[in-house]
Design goal:
The chain is α/β, with parallel strands linked by helices. The chain has 2 domains: 123 residues, Tetrapyrrole methylase, N-terminal domain (Cobalt-precorrin-4 Transmethylase, domain 1, 3-Layer(aba) Sandwich); 100 residues, Methyltransferase, Cobalt-precorrin-4 Transmethylase, Domain 2 (2-Layer Sandwich). The strands form 2 sheets. Strands 3-2-4-1-5 form a 5-stranded parallel beta sheet, with helices on both faces. The protein is globular and about 55 Å long. The N and C termini lie far apart (47 Å).
């Protein structure tokens, strides 16, 4: 049995890699992670131009880590995947961004390796949202002797403070999980670049300055902040 885990990039079908496109076009079974147990998944709609009409699509619900039934739901997803995979022998698992950067799939990876070592897992990398955002801003992630840190908004205050102090460039995913965005904004004023990036790679894409006013607004799941101490 073979499972191809396909990174699709931030959400623009034109940014799907050639290899990812080929895997999707040749798949007869596709697993789609979703936060609503349906096909509203961004991964599904990004890959849709390349999915054959005859394909079997299996949506899989992925909760937040804080969900008290998290482990139970993940195991249920694995059981559902194996039932289908035994019938088809091969499948693709679609992921927005890259499979190993804050994706739904990495919640499954270790469980699959431990419970089903006979499955051959192929990882297809994808463009990450922060890489696309940096290209929009036309600033490098890191230059000579510079450091880059990527974190999520739910890390504790001490870790965020440490990262801000040690890094030249900081990317924060899932800023809707930052407990106090206004306080966080006040900690970042030494950075010359401070941008809030929302829905990167989609028709709803926006990039705005992070300041004391924008820090009071509310942001969705696919929102991130990019900080850089110098443009060089």
């Amino acid at each position: 049995m073979k499972l191809s885990v396909v990174g699709l990039g931030p959400g623009d079908p034109e940014l799907v890699t050639v290899k990812a496109k080929k895997v999707i076009e040749n798949s007869q079974l596709i697993f789609v992670p979703s936060m609503k147990s349906d096909l509203s998944s961004r991964a599904y709609h990004t890959a849709l131009p390349y999915i054959s009409k005859s394909v079997s699509i299996v949506p899989l619900y992925f909760p937040y880590f804080s969900n008290p039934r998290f482990s139970e739901i993940i195991q249920s997803n694995i059981d559902s995947m194996m039932t289908k995979l035994k019938l088809y022998d091969q499948a693709a698992f679609l992921i927005i961004g890259d499979p190993f950067l804050y994706s739904s799939y990495f919640q499954l990876h270790q469980f699959l390796q431990e419970q089903y070592p006979e499955i051959k897992i192929d990882i297809i990398p994808g463009l990450s949202a922060y890489q696309l955002a940096l290209s929009r801003l036309q600033i490098p992630a890191a230059g000579n002797n510079q450091t880059l840190s990527v974190i999520t908004g739910d890390v504790n205050h001490e870790k965020i403070s440490s990262v801000l102090g040690l890094s030249d460039t900081v990317v924060i995913y899932k800023i809707n999980q930052i407990a106090n965005l206004a306080h966080f904004e006040s900690q970042t004023r030494e950075f010359s670049v401070r941008k809030i990036c929302c829905e990167i790679g989609t028709d709803q894409e926006t990039i705005r300055d992070l300041n004391h006013k924008t820090a009071l607004d509310h942001y969705g799941y696919f929102s991130s902040i990019i900080l850089k101490k110098t443009n060089l």
